[in-house]
Amino acid sequence: MSTAGKVIKCKAAVAWEVKKPMVIEQIEVAPPKAHEVRIKIVATGICRSDDHVLSGAFAMPLPMVLGHEAAGVVESVGEGVTCVKPGDHVIPLFVPQCGNCSSCRSTKGNLCSQNDLSEGSGLMPDGTSRFTCKGKNLHHFISTSTFTEYTVVHETSVVKIDASAPLEKVCLIGCGFSTGYGAAVQTAKVERGTTCAVFGLGGVGLSAVMGCKSVGASRIFGVDINKSKFPKAKELGATDCVNPLDYKKPINEVLFDLTDGEGVDYSFEVIGRTDTMTAALASCHQNYGTSVIVGVPPSASEIAFDPMLLFTGRTWKGSVFGGWKSKDSVPKLVSDFIGKKFVLDPLITHTLPFEKINEGFELLRSGKSIRTVLTF
Questions:
Q1: Distance between CA atoms of 129 and 12, rounded to whole angstroms?
Q2: pLDDT tens for residues 298-347?
Q3: Best label site of 122, 148, 227, 270, fewest CB within 10 Å?
Q4: What is the distance between the terminal CA atoms of the chain, rounded to a whole angstrom?
Q5: pLDDT of 277-288, one tens digit each?
């Protein structure tokens, strides 16, 4: 019996309050309206950005269905949808691509104006929700909401991928891998023979290491206070691993010492802390170094820094979703994975059934996992 056009009752993890575990609930998922797509989620990764919402660092309206790194199969489509059809294998896109706004039209930009990162309304573009639970509307998370068996997204926030790709692996292309890898190859445009420093060796940071290696960076410093992440970082391309706690001087001075007083050509902050953002900036070459902010900064945070750091010539950039135009790039990245241009397996340290989602978050917080993938 077809579910198209009908409300679907299914399991979802609902974040009711900050600093509380999510609760597996039965929710109702409304059918897609015009230009919307309902997706059966097959696999979804646990990303630090989801945890930032649970901790209160990334302010979002609750209750909410979190999750934004996933892959699935189209269940049904609303009126006017032509980009995908039922049965297509897809990846939801937390950075939409409408094709019409100034960022979409520009060769320099990728942050579509239809994104829900900036305002965090937690609603579909028409200002309503497709999720209800116990008579209450639930908010959507950054155009995706993938901690649920079924979700509804706007057609600008989904793209068809090669049906032969393993969904439990390429779900990482929905956020973590693409964000880190792209920060290096797309946003910074790291060149062969340069030196790089990556602050934070989680899934996104390790993907940045892989990006630096893929273009032939000569030295790649992995910076983290968790030494257990160093072997994996070296496996994926880091030439040196540095624990700031091993030194009495600031980490930027340590990196200058390790590069004969020059500093690195490129640095990447993949943690989301303001103190490491300024340290990453200060660690790169004073005249032509480029530092890229990749980690999501805490809501309402501010940075105080010495303007001389920029006056001498450094460049400070931000990177959302690795600078990729989502609809154009995600299918190509999936094809590159199938073609063995990069690997994803080393990033996936745990695979758990969806019901164990809170256990997956504990693995993340304790530093025991790189990426946990939840399967339905």
A1: 15
A2: 777 889 899 999 999 999 999 999 999 999 999 999 999 999 999 999 99
A3: 227
A4: 21
A5: 999 999 999 999
Question: Is 68 annotated in the active site?
Answer: yes
Task: Give the total residue count for the chain.
Answer: 376
Angle (CA) 81 87 93, round 5°: 60
Summarised one tens digit per residue, pLDDT across range 78-116 is 999 999 999 999 999 999 999 999 999 999 999 999 999
pLDDT at site 297: 83
Alpha carbon distance 103, 83 (integer Å): 20
CB proximity list for 64: less than 8 A, separation 6 or greater: 14, 15, 53, 122, 138, 139, 140, 141, 145
101 among known catalytic residues: no
- Tell me the Cα Rg of the chain: 20
**Catalytic residue (one of 47, 104, 112, 241):** 47
| 76 labelled catalytic | no
The one catalytic residue in 49, 76, 145, 207 is: 49
CA 299, 209, 330, 40 dihedral sign is negative
Distances (CA, A) of 92 to 8, 53, 57, 82, 272: 19, 19, 24, 16, 23
Query: Does 139 participate in catalysis according to the annotation?
Result: no
Tokens linked to 303: 């940075």
Active site residue 89: no
Provide the b/e sequence for 158-185 (b: ≥16 CB within 10 Å).
bbbbeeebebbbbbbbbbbbbbbbbbbb
Could you give the CA distance from residue 274 to residue 267 in angstroms, rounded to a whole number? 14
CB atoms within 10 A of CB 359: 15
User: What pLDDT, in 10s, does the model give residues 142-190?
Assistant: 999 999 999 999 999 999 999 999 999 999 999 999 999 999 999 999 9
Q: Which of 104, 175, 196, 284 is catalytic?
A: 175
Confidence check: pLDDT of 1 > 60: no
